[in-house]
# Entry
Amino acid sequence: MVFPAKRVLVPGGAGFIGSNFVRHVLAQTDASVTILDALTYAGSLTTVENILGDRVSFVRGRIEDHALVDQLVSEHDLVVNFAAESHNDNSISDPSSFVKTNVSGTFALLEAVRNHDVRLHHISTDEVFGDLDFDDASKFTESTSYNPSSPYSATKAASDFLVRAWVHTYGIRATISNCSNNYGPYQHVEKFIPRQITNVLLGVRPRLYGTGRNIRDWIHVDDHSSAVLRIIEAGRLGQTYLIGANGERSNLEVVQEILRLMGKPIDEFDLVNDRPGHDRRYAIDASALRDELGWSPAFTDFCVGLEATIDWYRNNGTWWADQKTSTEAFYARTGH
Ligand code: NAD
Ligand code: DAU
# Structure
């Protein structure tokens, strides 16, 4: 299959998953990339500095800026949108930037791709489906109803509905993917796995919200990127695809695995305040992606990916040192 684009615009390409996706585009296609990123607290030029050059250029700007986005979209033949406010705890403390970026920003991108008839792939989350009961064996599928529960997931659901409406009403060429929890290098230390790894590296005990019973469905970020590439190559326009790698684990199990891999006693963690409205369990059934598009994850053993991720944080302290200080100051204020 030939990659169907020569010039790709990647909003949010200086963040965790967007930067990983840009690396995949460089390695697996001949396309050139423009990263459009506001460089909020979550984005950093150091994340992409070693790939900027002949094939990758960078524009600092916001996706809600209609004029900028319209100009950039007109110069590209594919937009893959990773730009978002992405952290639940921040959305609980102050939802305003989530509405602005995730809703108004997606609206601006949609108007631009409509105006210039440019293909869009929109990155979304499994959190749009709400949560599953601990005792419920079912998983989310493409036909699960939307039922978001946090300010973050409500704005992501709104963005998905905007994309679907623009497909249905204006016939824009778009696909959507909803992925489960990612882990891997370059993830901001506000997120669960890098927060606990960097805590242990600094001699601080990991912190579990509530009882640690909540379940997330982990996928390595490389597998998220390979799935998105596959959807862009072969997915049906107008469709939604769920991305997951059968990685369900309780938060307690993940913390104990991190402690074990880092040579610490597995009971050296603290239970702290729970997250308000904390979603219980997420689980993805990715069989449509596997059966229809022939995709499969490369990381089938969570411990292998986790160990490599621990090594990355151990070897890249300068990348995360500053964000660790500001992140822990925020968590101290929220009792986490
Ligand atoms: P991230 O917070 O690491 O990166 C987001 C990037 O977007 C940052 O570089 C930031 O500077 C940029 N950005 C934020 N607001 C912007 C704006 N208004 N204009 C331009 N750029 C802006 O997030 P991530 O974890 O890489 O998530 C990327 C996407 O994947 C998001 O849409 C998120 O909802 C989705 N997603 C994330 C996960 C996960 O586990 N992290 C799982 C499924 C889906
Ligand atoms: O499911 C996909 C979503 O996964 C993405 O859409 C989001 O962008 C991404 O942030 C992630 O959301 P979560 O809220 O699940 O991820 P987070 O890393 O914040 O937390 C994972 C779990 O760990 C959750 O149950 C809360 C818990 N937690 C989190 C932190 C930061 C802890 O127990 N302790 C912590 O210190």
